[in-house]
Amino acid sequence: MAKVYLEKDVLTAFFERTEEVFKEADNVIFSVSGGKDSGIMVQLANIVAKKLNKKYDVMYIDFEAQYKATIDYINRLKKLSNVRTFYHIALPMYLRNAVSVLQPKWICWNPDDEDIWVRKLPKDSINLSNNIFPFYNRPIEFEEFVPLFQEWYQKTHGGLCFVGVGIRADESINRFRTIALMPNKVEYKSHHWTTKVGENMYSFYPMYDWRTEDDWGATTKFNLDMNNIYELMYKNGLSIHEQRLCQPYGDDQRNGLDQFKALESETWEKVLNRVNGVNFGNIYCKTSALGNITSMKPEHMTWQQYTIYLLESLGLYNKDLELHYYGKIKKFMKWYKDKEGIDLKDIPEEADKKEESMKKVISWRRIARAIEKNDFYMKRLSFSENKSDFEKLKKMISKWDNLLNETTETTDKSLRKAKEVLINERN
């Protein structure tokens, strides 16, 4: 381990800092993200807690659109021996969406979007149905939630409280400033690895002077558990210094979303439909929601990307229509998985055009063409026209002005017929 702190290796310094906090604090809570730093921090802290016969709490804020491997890791951390309360928070919060100028923020766990959540609410989570926080009564920014939680924690538990934060100064200059250069920074007993964040409440950074190599050195030395996503990142060509685990739509992550797709393709399918602009920040075509789409697939796009772009573009004008198509496509893919054993990752970009037109094979081109033709009933994907879909269409028309009206031009025979019926009913 590297010697960077008062002639002590960082691991020794970590244990000394954490032991001092446990001895002097009335309550200790650790903030974890599922990443390597916070995961290592809380596991090493558990060693100290066992030695001193102390209990501690953990806070994890679940952003919904997470790697499955991260959630599995979090569930394993919940089983650490000296954890008193594990606050698994799954409340709606505004999060940054750096990949779209059209939807600069999105709300995780938004009840209005439940049908497209990336996954179900964790059973042991704090959510809207069992919210225990008096300060939370509406979706707020993540950055706003954290200090309010810290204030609530101190008032609820009382005494001198510390929150452990697993950040390292070498990851960014901003993190270094947070620890060392904050204006009017108040420290606990002049420890530069602490910062006062409220009345009788301090943040402490027990591993602020660690390097990435120290993370994995400690993991090996103590046989610590790890988030398996890092193993996948390494196998996918990322060095230990390039590996990051943050919300997938943030400023630092927008250029690495393909990495998300490569690591967990099944999760990626759900993520694509969750937030506008995951693949594309610009609209390539504008159209009335059920009118003719006159777009052509850009050369730089794959057919899969083109499919997503069409869905997102329509969703910007009519979210219900986007979700309707998404549901049909999902059933279409499930049929091929159940009957033909074709997983999402194995769907070809193209197949024989004749077999595609005869509806005998699955391909991303076939799916994209169905959307491009505004095939509401998705007959091109082997669905049949039915009364249930027609009733859904009627409800959409009553809700959306841009769906199907007298001025809408469509080459789809079923839609032209529906248009005549609805206009006659209206008159």
Helical element count? 15
Please identify the oligomeric state.
single chain
The helicity comes to 40-55%
Task: Give a count of the beta strands, DSSP E runs of length 2 or more.
Answer: 11
Secondary-structure element order, as H and E?
Answer: EEHEHEHEEEEHEHEEHHHHHHHHHH
Main sheet overview: 6 strands, mixed
Form type = elongated
What is the SS-derived class?
alpha/beta
Poorly predicted segments = 1-5, 252-256, 277-289
Q: What is the C-alpha radius of gyration, as a whole number of Å?
A: 26 Å
Instruction: Tell me the strand percentage band.
Output: 5-15%
**End-to-end distance:** 80 Å
Strand order of the largest sheet: 5-4-3-9-11-10
- Give the overall average pLDDT: 82
Question: TL;DR?
Answer:
This protein is of the alpha/beta class. 42% of the residues lie in helices and 11% in strands. It has a 6-stranded mixed beta sheet. A 3-stranded mixed beta sheet has the order 7-6-8.
Key phrases:
427 residues, 15 helices, 6-stranded mixed beta sheet, alpha/beta
List the helices and strands and how they pair.
Elements: E1 3-5, E2 8-9, H1 10-24, E3 27-32, H2 36-52, E4 56-61, H3 68-77, E5 83-89, E6 93-96, E7 105-108, E8 140-141, H4 142-157, E9 161-165, H5 173-181, E10 194-198, E11 201-204, H6 212-221, H7 229-235, H8 257-263, H9 265-274, H10 303-317, H11 319-340, H12 353-357, H13 364-372, H14 387-399, H15 413-426
Parallel strand pairs: 3-4, 3-9, 4-5, 6-8, 9-11
Antiparallel strand pairs: 1-2, 6-7, 10-11
